[in-house]
Amino acid sequence: xxxxxxxxxxxxxxxxxxxxxxxxxxxxxxxxxxxxxxxxxxxxxxxxxxxxxxxxxxxxxxxxxxxxxxxxxxxxxxxxxxxxxxxxxxxxxxxxxxxxxxxxxxxxxxxxxxxxxxxxxxxxxxxxxxxxxxxxxxxxxxxxxxxxxxxxxxxxxxxxxxxxxxxxxxxxxxxxxxxxxxxxxxxxxxxxxxxxxxxxxxxxxxxxxxxxxxxxxxxxxxxxxxxxxxxxxxxxxxxxxxxxxxxxxxxxxxxxxxxxxxxxxxxxxxxxxxxxxxxxxxxxxxxxxxxxxxxxxxxxxxxxxxxxxxxxxxxxxxxxxxxxxxxxxxxxxxxxxxxxxxxxxxxxxxxxxxxxxxxxxxxxxxxxxxxxxxxxxxxxxxxxxxxxxxxxxxxxxxxxxxxxxxxxxxxxxxxxxxxxxxxxxxxxxxxxxxxxxxxxxxxxxxxxxxxxxxxxxxxxxxxxxxxxxxxxxxxxxxxxxxxxxxxxxxxxxxxxxxxxxxxxxxxxxxxxxxxxxxxxxxxxxxxxxxxxxxxxxx
Length: 538
What we know:
Elements: E1 12-17, E2 20-24, E3 27-30, E4 37-40, E5 63-66, H1 84-93, E6 97-103, H2 104-107, E7 108-109, E8 112-116, H3 118-133, E9 137-145, E10 148-149, H4 163-179, E11 188-193, H5 201-216, E12 224-227, H6 229-232, H7 237-241, E13 245-250, H8 254-257, E14 277-278, E15 283-285, E16 297-300, E17 307-326, E18 329-337, E19 350-351, E20 356-369, E21 375-395, E22 408-410, E23 424-426, E24 432-433, E25 439-440, H9 442-458, E26 463-468, H10 476-493, E27 497-499, E28 519-521, E29 524-526, H11 528-536
Helix pairs in contact: 4-5, 9-10
């Protein structure tokens, strides 16, 4: 549709201050006080296919990426000029949305909240200009704001409780509003703050209301978006009442999307990701522990040839006798004991509370499974308890009793104490079958994370997915299966989305995955398979 007319004319040489000049397609003019820059653009004859967003209905056709060029102060790849070539690629591929997460420290001088850096603002001007030129909606976001961030280091002030950072936050958004008041909503929106946490709904809404008031004082019609509560996961109806749309996240489950992410403590210990995820508790308790449910691993599969089972034992509390049976017949019986000093464990751990050792083994123990077996069970019959990290099944014979045989792994992944272990059936093609309550899949994602946002949309609130994606250490095939389930859910809910990121470990360009055959593309390493999947849902 057209937007008040508008051809891009690369014509302007303008003065930003008495002594500085610059050239670009868009332009900045001085306001009446001759001390603030106002971005303007010659839209004469310019038409656009971009939809008109409203607070009640964000476009489901918004599809694109987060661009991290101003994401983190002085970062080698996160504090650099925007690259016009990336906008052209996005446009050529059919994408029409770019979220721009900004570290506010890049925007100011001398760490002074009131001293905006005009040079940095020209970089923002450039991204707005590229958006207009290539028909890509630009969503500006303060990823770090005065008094709040999810990144490190933490802010020294508190946006939720202190007046000064709240005032600075509102002033910055007022500054953006005045500078870009001439840009139509088809091309530009404001996303207040990245992933609020540690704040109740009323306080959050009050802070956002102040910033919205500062924006609307200069631009009463600007489309505004606030991230949901609890890191963007929970919609706020108080925010909706302010006439503000909202954005959620698509990072669940975290142990898949942030597997071995070096900024997430403990992610090195996440189990190897699979998708769908079959939820299996890690603990086997002895018969004598009457404070927890009886726990037995039961794996049903047509073992049509001899197999080896490698059981990776995790922690052994004091001592535990592991019994493995094939169709009810014992094929393995071993008493594991923890103690002081050196042993078969990798680390001795003394628990003073219970006056016992709970040593970490993290070691494989091999068990032979006879051909023709139909069900394997593992249980602890004596002692205290043990945890199991992995059960790896591998065929060892060349000749099957019938059909074919495949290797497969069953990976316990829930550290919840006292959780019941479900039986697992493994089909001939290696697919797991278990009760739906013990599976994380597309339906689980929809019911757990999308449903609250679907209800917001049905109640007249605009919503989109501001960030989603998976880090490059998760196996590529797992990521693609997980992504498609998310894309189907976003489509069904009528929500647009922005992948984190275009270029980098979550993205389609230069993602640094070890299991991708990259295509050389315009000087980048392109993950064509991921790109094709995303384009399938445009």
